[in-house]
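Two entries, shown back to back:
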Amino acid sequence: MYTSPSATEREDDDPTIKSQPTKLEEYFFPAHRLKSRLDDETKEPLAIIACGSFSPITYLHLRIFEMAKDYISEHTQFEIIGGYYSPVSDRYTKDGLAPSYHRVRMCELAVERTSQWLMVDAWETLQNEYTQTAIVMDHFNEEINNKRGGIMTTDVPEGQNHAFSRWRSNRIVQGSKALVG
């Protein structure tokens, strides 16, 4: 009989995957599934972020990302470089909201076994006050485009016979609004 792996077994399977911290001073940006290069250099890089309570995360939350990825891949000039769940902080007043460390952990468990491109970022949950979505998007822009330099592409300029690397800024999408980085 098959039983689901425990959180400890999951982390033992892949020691490079670290659970998000519960203290801001221990925070790190999860990038273990973030692409560093485009597969199709004719496309523009795109990261998808979902902010929400995720109390709890549901199958539909997971499906929405997959459906968005499929649509974007088939109908746009973008290539998905990663996707993130950003659970809201405990300062968000909502009846029945589970503590943020539980919601972050539920999201981690949901994506680590079911996806090759989704991640969970606890930064929003670690803030001392409720953080508006635009500020959360600025955080992702800072982490992906500024601290990590965007995404590397390889071009062969006219007149040269070797490739060189350049970094391209990513677009970050949340909901139906695109915020250009």
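entry 2 starts here
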Amino acid sequence: MVARHTFWNISSGLKISLYVFASFAICIFLYGFYRRYRLWKQGRKVKVKWEDVRDNIKIFLTMTVKQEKIKRDKFFGLMHRFTSYGFVILFIGTCLVVVDYDFHIPILRGNFYLFYELFLDVFGVLFIAGLLMAIWIRSKKKRPRLKNGFADNAFLWLLVFIGIGGFMVEGIRIAETKVEYGGWSLLDMLWLNCSKTIRDYRDYMEYFGSLMHYSLFY
């Protein structure tokens, strides 16, 4: 059956640690939202008008979704769109995995899953490309107003390693499970074809890829 093999070759201990750290991260997020909510409550109450809601939605679509403001600079605009769109699509893809695996709603099945794999591969590549463009911009100091400390650059490289690690782990999974539909994961198959010694170093590469992929989360 065409379906996602969630937590393939992942031990029970790592599964438990994943959920523990995820719960911790969610609690921090909820606390941050609560602090923001308390700040909102201090404001003066006003009557919400539909015109204001409509205008705010229009601004959101123009500035956040279409990102019209950064279109004036093609290179910087592409960098920002690649990174932001890639991140959002990968986040949505992760949410679908949660729905499929944790809530036991079988949505990642059949043709939908095949297009899901292809779609996330494309945006995963764009995400990595956008990050590399951002690193190049910082290295050339093209934007003097940007903070360019060690932590700023390390965070970008960490995201790059996580993205590459995801493709590595996926490629190894395809090689080991020998699924017939592996070709839908284009970059993973390219990784497999380029790695002639993948079976000799499978354990090492799997560990290295998993370490990169989960490093940000931990």
